[in-house]
Specification:
Rossmann fold; alpha/beta; 6-stranded parallel β-sheet; 9 strands; binds adenosine monophosphate; 3-stranded antiparallel β-sheet
Length: 277
């Protein structure tokens, strides 16, 4: 496994590769969710590259950029065990030199959900992913359904800007009790961790209602809200039943829908989602 820190090294290496290259962008502090993406990439490509970069531009000044969990040695050992070929771990200055002034902005779909709560977040995500694509030049890039809106934004960007790569989406990896794996789960207190499966249970409830024929999106939102509010530690940020492509809220579920929610459990804010149809 080669660990690369500079863009110049990454380009030199890329020039030597023949055959397909799969790419998994991450912010590190890896877990099974990330490793599953690596396994998908290894199964579908000749080479696999992973990036580890905690991207400052997708955090607002009030968010946890400084304290975001990091463990370089552990991450590298995990990637080595998965037989990753390349790890790109640039410094902040390497990605954002002082004169940096160009941004990639995906409009409309970024006004909703996470974008409404975290202004500027998706501008940071789209910009860094675009830069990483330009540096790594992957054949395929792998993203997790866990961050459903991020997937929609990256797919939109890749299509709108005619990027010469395939965006592949892998299902959310969960703990045995249903909690979606996330680097930020380490912030949960023991009581918060115990309460956390309430997110997925509320989504399963929505799925059951829908499978039994409920097509009224408002009733699904109400049921999820009531289920979350019954958990004393949880504070619901939003629950959404939206068109999977435009992310516009639905009143009737007459097409494929994304049910997503964000919930505060003490300090950490957790997200989860399921697809219907
Ligand atoms: P992050 O390091 O949080 O930026 O995540 C890097 C990639 O891993 C993103 O594409 C995430 O959607 C994906 N990912 C994070 N958690 C999970 C999970 N529990 N299941 C599947 N993919 C995940």
């Amino acid at each position: 496994m080669k660990v690369i820190k500079t863009i110049a090294e990454a380009r030199a290496l890329r020039r030597q590769l023949t055959g397909s290259l799969g790419f998994v962008p991450t912010m590190g502090y890896l877990h099974e969710g990330h490793l599953t993406l690596v396994r998908h990439s290894r199964a579908e490509n000749r080479h696999t590259a992973v990036s580890i970069f905690v991207n400052p531009t997708q955090f607002s000044p009030k968010e946890d950029y400084q304290s975001y969990p990091r463990d370089e040695a552990r991450d590298l050992a995990m990637l080595e065990a998965e037989r990753t070929d390349f790890v790109f771990m640039p410094s902040e200055e390497e990605i954002y030199p002082r004169a940096f002034s160009t941004w990639v902005e995906v409009t409309r779909i970024t006004d909703r959900l996470e974008g409404a709560v975290r202004p500027g977040h998706f501008r940071g995500v789209a910009t860094v992913v675009n830069k990483l694509f330009n540096i790594i030049e992957p054949t395929r890039a792998y993203f997790g359904q866990k961050d459903a809106q991020q997937v929609t934004v990256i797919q939109r960007m890749a299509a709108d800007l005619n990027m010469n790569l395939q965006v592949v989406v892998a299902p959310t990896v969960r703990e045995p009790d249903g909690l979606a794996m996330s680097s930020r789960n380490v912030y949960l207190t023991p009581a918060g961790r115990k309460a956390a499966p309430v997110l997925f249970r509320s989504l399963q409830l929505a799925r059951e209602m829908w499978a039994k024929g409920e097509k009224d999106a408002g009733r699904l939102r109400q049921a999820v809200t009531a289920h979350i509010e019954a958990e004393p530690l949880a504070r619901l940020d939003y629950v959404s039943v939206a068109d999977t492509e435009t992310l516009e809220e639905l009143s009737v579920i007459d097409r494929p829908a994304l049910v997503s929610l964000a919930v505060k459990l003490g300090k950490p804010r957790l997200m989860d989602n399921i697809l219907l149809g």
